[in-house]
UniProtKB/TrEMBL annotation, chains A, B:
Descriptive protein name: LacI family DNA-binding transcriptional regulator
Signal sequence interval, chain numbering: none
Organism field: Streptomyces indiaensis
GO terms of molecular function: DNA binding
Spans traversing the lipid bilayer: none
Alphabetized SUPFAM superfamilies for the sequence: lambda repressor-like DNA-binding domains, Periplasmic binding protein-like I
Chain coiled-coil ranges: none
Length: 345, 345
DNA sequence: CCCGAGTCTGACAACGTTGTCCAGGCTCTA
DNA sequence: TAGAGCCTGGACAACGTTGTCAGACTCGGG
């Protein structure tokens, strides 16, 4: 008869349960439960015996069974685009802190901007019966969440509103921020301003584009199609887009970058240019102040967004909150040099 | 009789169970289970009826109950220092990708470098019966994990070895990386080289310090105490430490920065200096190539570390892996300018 | 000495799912 | 047409915990 490897044997070795602890301590099952949960009504002597048995056996309460009985899991889910993105790290951390303050754990998943994967993740989290969900949506139809909402899963959307359902959403003033950033360039004398952004099906990208257009219109500047590059992702494509709008017959004198990744690539391209080109980016980036010139940005506070969303989530769980709302957080223009370069006409 | 708020009412509203689905579809409980899990032995007609009932009721399987029955949770835990740190974001993401490939979800927690909080988090994860744990330890005694290991919780430590228990560990060659980085500075003519690092109770910090000392000793350079600044955390204290070793009677001509956060602060300090000072940092930082001068670093590949650890974890779960091992990944010296500045004596 | 109140303890059901096992109806063959 | 074998469906127990409830024991007062 073949022996399974040792580790594997241990793996399937069963863990001690309250029943085992009770047997060893010579008490009833419920008494163990009482000790484990710090409930009153246990003599110090009994408690000592139980505690001893717990330590000796290395018992740990099985929270799955507990959840099954109690209904609450004390965990919340966070679905975002990519945890490796420097914007989401701090956001995730601040959500975790709020969760921790409420005794909850955080499960996160990256959707990679894929609507199908978003749904898959969200439903997996629901199957685990998370108490609440913070979702940075990739898709634009969230009707699949209706049964969950009805069942009372607290839900807050972040960065982009939910599609076809009525839910809380916390986001930055993408429109206003972009408008201010572009207006800043206009105020410094630019008229031919380029815009490089993500796919307009992404809400933030669309809003920032709208802000760009509004600023240009406010200043009475007609926008040439060749100044706008939409839906470019990946460094190579962004690079090509930037190079195209910098050359040609009607080259731009300034660029507004639609997100942090675009900004980084554009910085690289501009470093290779001979003539100075102004730049304002959406999202702050680390070390932006140490570059030559410093990078002017429209900053949003990721940690603040995360905290606001998480707090709202737990207020839903309290029952304090009833009506879904849209909360828009302000952005901040940080001038560091690159946005104040005059046009080199 | 007071009505609870609508949302709250929904919250405590019970979710449909397989029993409800079975009743609605007019079949037995187990038949529903079969359909949900794609098991064979159900007529297409019956399956259709069941599926209809599932959709109508918005049923989602309760994984807590499933786990209770099956033993496996298909989730793994990751405990790290701070998700907001740009080193851990990519690491976490790569662990998540491997988990996803194995159909598992990832729960993460930040220990904030606090041993007690680490233990608290790890035990909470074990109570949830995660199948495996990836731990970047804050503490140095992990005997509390013994019952878990015995029960078969797969465990891999990352970045620093476990204390007092025998477990897999995946880490960078901190000693060798630091030694090479410092030797690089020596090769460019420096003799008075400063070291700024984290508390030596942190394994990585101690190893990097050891690498610094080894490089200096190899070159026959005696090290002055005033050149070493250990256990400094927080930008202000790092700043003060850097300023001190740059002034005084025996100022350093080069600095080796022990981690990414120290590097960033030192860059700021150096930017304010009149004389040029060489710098090599441990960990790569974004945009390091665009600064003037570019920042020379000893880079470790966070994503690779995470992937290696996670893959090992799942091989433990397979039963493929039996004996704990120590896996050391190489670091890479990336020269960009700051490390090649000659001493300004 | 007895009774009531209060304290401590344990038996039992229930949470929602899956594994086991058996029943009944069908098809196929002799 | 009977018997064997297969296919489908369902009853039931079990997973480990917690809530309910009742029993046993202690103590103090009448």
């Amino acid at each position: 008869m073949p022996q399974p490897p040792l580790r594997s044997a241990a793996r399937y070795g069963t863990r001690p349960t309250m029943k085992d602890v009770a047997a060893r301590a010579g008490v009833g099952l419920k008494t163990v439960s009482r000790v484990v949960n710090g409930e009153p009504g246990v003599t110090p002597e009994t408690e000592r015996r139980v505690q001893e048995a717990i330590d000796a056996l290395g018992f740990r309460r099985n929270d799955s069974a507990r959840v099954l009985r109690k209904g609450r899991t004390a965990s919340i889910g966070l679905v975002l685009e990519d945890l490796a993105d420097p914007f989401y790290g701090p956001l995730s951390r601040s959500v975790e802190e709020v969760a921790r303050a409420h005794g909850a754990l955080l499960i996160n998943g990256s959707s990679a901007e894929d609507p199908e994967r978003e749904q898959e993740l969200v439903l997996a989290l629901c199957a685990r019966r998370v108490d609440g969900l913070v979702v940075i949506p990739a898709g634009d139809d969230h009707r699949y969440l209706e049964p969950e909402l009805k069942a009372g899963v607290a839900t807050v959307f972040v960065d982009r509103p939910a599609g076809h359902i009525d839910a809380d959403v916390v986001l930055s003033d993408n429109f206003g921020g972009a408008r201010d950033g572009v207006a800043h360039l206009i105020a410094h004398g630019h008229r031919r301003i380029g815009f490089i952004g993500d796919m307009p099906r992404i809400h933030t990208a669309a809003e920032r584009l709208r802000g760009y257009r509004a600023a240009m219109e406010d200043a009475g500047i007609p926008v040439a199609d060749s100044w706008m590059s939409l839906g470019v992702t990946g460094p190579e494509r962004v690079r090509r887009a930037a190079e195209e709008m910098l050359s040609g017959t009607d080259p731009v004198t300034a660029i507004f970058a639609g997100n942090n990744r675009v900004t980084v690539t554009v910085i690289r391209v501009l470093a290779e240019q001979t003539r100075p080109v102004a730049l304002v980016g959406f999202d702050d980036i680390e070390l932006a102040d140490l570059l030559q010139p410093g990078v002017t940005v429209v900053a949003q506070d990721a940690a603040d967004i995360g905290r606001t969303a998480a707090e709202r989530l737990f207020r839903q769980l309290d029952g304090t909150l009833v009506t879904p709302e849209r909360i828009e957080l302000p952005t901040r223009l940080i001038t560091r040099g690159s946005g104040e370069i005059p046009p080199a006409d």
